[in-house]
Amino acid sequence: MSVSLGEPSRPLRVAIVGSGPSGFYAAEALQKTDLAVQIDVFDRLPTPFGLVRGGVAPDHPKIKNVTRVYEKIASRDGFGFFGNVTIGRDVPIEMLREYYDATILCYGAETDRRLGIPGEDLPGSHTATAFVGWYNGHPDYREHEFDLSAEVAAVVGQGNVAADVARILAKSVDELRATDIAAHALDALAESRVREVHVIGRRGPAQAKFTPPELREFGRLESCVATVEGAIELSPTSAAEVEGSKDLQKNIATLEGYAANDAAGASREVRFRFLESPVAIEGDGRVERLVLERNRLEGDAGRQRAVPTGEHVTLDCGLVFRSIGYRGIALPGVPFDDRWGGIPNTAGRVTDGDTVVPGLYAAGWIKRGPSGVVGTNKPDAVETVRCLLEDLPTLTPCATPDSAPLARHLASRGLRVVSYDDWRRIDAAEIARGTAAGKPREKGTSVDELLGFLDA
Ligand code: NAP
């Protein structure tokens, strides 16, 4: 007898790997169909929301309000959360096929691109990923140590992550105290001696990837002045790029304002530098300086690239933060493209060479690379779910359409699966702890601590 997936008698069963924005938007897109669906969302952490919890800066609370939308999605019938479960380790991807008709991989891009220069791993040279995870209380980075005793720090890269890193370094502790920043980070930042933060772009001011509000924030910091090294000069090609983009016009106006600032007397300075590429990080046992090579731009408007000029400059600094973009990691049993660090796919259908892998889909950063803001993941996930729905007649129904045996399998391995109700209890405990400290929440920063909230 053939099975009709999505009938009340046999709901369509979908596993979603990763509970960040793309995972929730994929779940929502499935909920918006007329089908009966059971959606189980897996996350390796006991907590949901991915980068909204572990990536969005603590001083950007409005962006985090989107979790209210995710709460609604999670409260609908047919939504299950399997927190603290690592797909690929606790549950091989093949095992998901036993219990689910389709799987959507939404596990983001959690590692960093490398500069590939000498000295990259010297103590004092950090990835933005680690710093962001650390100040956001992500369990992976709880033990990471940041020695903030140097006066000069370099941030390499000019995207919004670099902006977050530079801003957190530049803000006073009073500006951060009432946020959900991790207590260990607030303590370390209170002792920070960083006074100068150089934000370094390999291309020019017209090519910096900051969004205008993020760049403008540097003009509103309490005890920090934003400046620019040299003047803002645009070649005719760059001027043409700016002409064609409202956002670039705003950024250039902001940078021109910064270029007119004087940091004398300020307790901190964030200095934007352009057309410089790091070629070496040097120091005796730890970072002491960053060697930069000056660049010029070549190419047509919109596609200009940095070309080295052979001229070098040295920046004496004790800290380097590399913020040049994220990369995804491979999941055992799933095709992976090592060149760009994501899962090969066509509109969300996972591909292996020229072949589509039946029943396997991707959404979010692992599908398209690390670009866009939180909301960008919504149309991206909708596109993937549309493909899944088109494929419905050809999907092979899973052999065991039931989540309970999978839960039993995990329990038999001694794994403590965190349900969505469990997460609500963790959430309440964090908020209560935060209220006592005058913060929106005080996060649990290790898996044990998070699970401990459930035993309290
Ligand atoms: P990004 O926007 O892609 O910026 C990466 C930066 O690194 C660019 O300036 C890039 O320069 C530079 N870069 C890359 N390779 C380099 C190299 N080898 N040497 C020197 N510089 C190099 O990435 P991101 O900052 O990691 O952000 C990821 C996404 O998250 C973005 O879409 C961002 O907008 C989003 N995000 C948003 C917010 C927010 O809305 N508040 C906050 C954080 C992140 P080129 O341009 O020359 O390649």
Can you describe this structure?
With 456 residues, this protein is an alpha/beta fold. The protein has 2 domains: 12-110 and 328-418, Rossmann fold; 112-325, FAD/NAD(P)-binding domain (3-Layer(bba) Sandwich). It is 32% helix and 21% strand. It has 17 helices and 18 strands. The chain has helices at residues 21-31, 50-54, 61-64, 67-75, 93-99, 128-135, 160-170, 173-176, 183-190, 212-216, 236-243, 246-259, 365-368, 377-391, 404-412, 420-436, 447-455; strands spanning 12-17, 37-43, 79-83, 102-105, 111-112, 125-127, 152-156, 196-200, 224-228, 268-273, 276-282, 289-298, 305-316, 319-322, 326-327, 345-346, 349-352, 355-362. Strands 3-2-1-4-18-17-16 form a 7-stranded mixed beta sheet, sandwiched between helices. It has a 6-stranded parallel beta sheet with strand order 6-14-7-8-10-9. The chain has a 3-stranded antiparallel beta sheet with strand order 11-12-13, with no helix packed on it. A hairpin with a 6-residue loop joins strand 12 (289-298) and strand 13 (305-316). Helix 1 crosses helix 14 and helix 16 (420-436) crosses helix 17. The longest helix is centred in the C-terminal third of the chain and has 17 residues, at 420-436. It is globular and about 75 Å long. It starts with 11 loop residues before the first strand and ends with a helix. The model has no long low-confidence stretch (mean pLDDT 97). It binds NADP nicotinamide-adenine-dinucleotide phosphate (NAP). NADP nicotinamide-adenine-dinucleotide phosphate binds at residues 60, 115, 156-162, 164, 201-203, 207, 209, 211, 214, 277, 323-326, 370-373.
